[in-house]
Amino acid sequence: MAVDFGDHASGFRHAEVVRFINNEVLLNGGGPEFYAALRSRPWSEVEDRLRGVLADPRVPRAHQRACAWSALALGVRGAARQREQQGRRIRRLQEQMEERETAAWALASELQRMREAREDVATQLRFTRITLQQALMECDVLRGRLLQQAPCREPDAGLDPGSPGSHPRPKAALNRSAPLGCPSFPASHRSEGKFSHSLFEGLSSSSELPKKGRGRSFYGIFGPL
C-alpha cells in the first residue's frame, strides 16, 4: 500500500481515490518503498527520481508504472503541503496586517488629539497676545496721564543742576580768629613762642650772664645778644 488512508497530509479527500492508487501500485508489482522514501521531499526531487526509474532500461515496465502512480500520489501530497504552508503564511500576513492597522488607527487617533491640542494652544496664544496688547495700550495711557499731572521740579539751591542727585557744595570755611591777610598759626605754635620769649627774658636778666664789652658775645636761642 502506497498511500495511508489515515494520513490527512496526503492531500486526498476521498477514500476511493486512495484505494484505486494503492491497487494500481500493487498490481504493477510496486510497494510503499518509493512513496515512503520521498514523502517529505519536494516535487523536484520526486520528479528526478521518477525520471531515473523511467530512463533505466533494466527496470520492468510494470514497475515503472507503479513508480509513476506513487509519484502521482507524492505530487498531490506536495501540493497539499505547499497549500498548507501558503495558508499559514497568509494567516501570518493577515495577523501582521491587522496589527499594523491597529497601530495605524492608534497613531491616527493620537495625531487627531495632538491637532486639537495644537489648535487649543494657538487659540489661547491669540487671546493672550490680544490681552497683552490691551495692557500695553493702557500702560501707555496711564504713563501719559502721569506725565501731564506731574509738576515741574525746580533745581535746589546749592545743587549742581547738571548732575542728578548731587549734594550741596561745601563752602570754604574762614578762619575768624586770624586777621585778613595774615596767616594763622595753630595754638600749639603760639604757646611755643611764648615759652621761648619767657626763656629769653629769664636768661637776659640773670646775673650769671657775661656783660657786654668783655670780648665775648652770648648766643641765645634767637641769635646774638
From TrEMBL:
<protein>
    <recommendedName>
        <fullName>Testis-expressed protein 13 A-D N-terminal domain-containing protein</fullName>
    </recommendedName>
</protein>
<feature type="coiled-coil region">
    <location>
        <begin position="76"/>
        <end position="103"/>
    </location>
</feature>
<comment type="similarity">
    <text>Belongs to the TEX13 family.</text>
</comment>
<keyword id="KW-0175">Coiled coil</keyword>
<dbReference type="InterPro" id="IPR028193">
    <property type="entry name" value="TEX13A-D_N"/>
</dbReference>
<dbReference type="GO" id="GO:0003729">
    <property type="term" value="F:mRNA binding"/>
</dbReference>
<feature type="region of interest" description="Disordered">
    <location>
        <begin position="152"/>
        <end position="186"/>
    </location>
</feature>
<dbReference type="Pfam" id="PF15186">
    <property type="entry name" value="TEX13"/>
</dbReference>
<feature type="domain" description="Testis-expressed protein 13 A-D N-terminal">
    <location>
        <begin position="5"/>
        <end position="149"/>
    </location>
</feature>
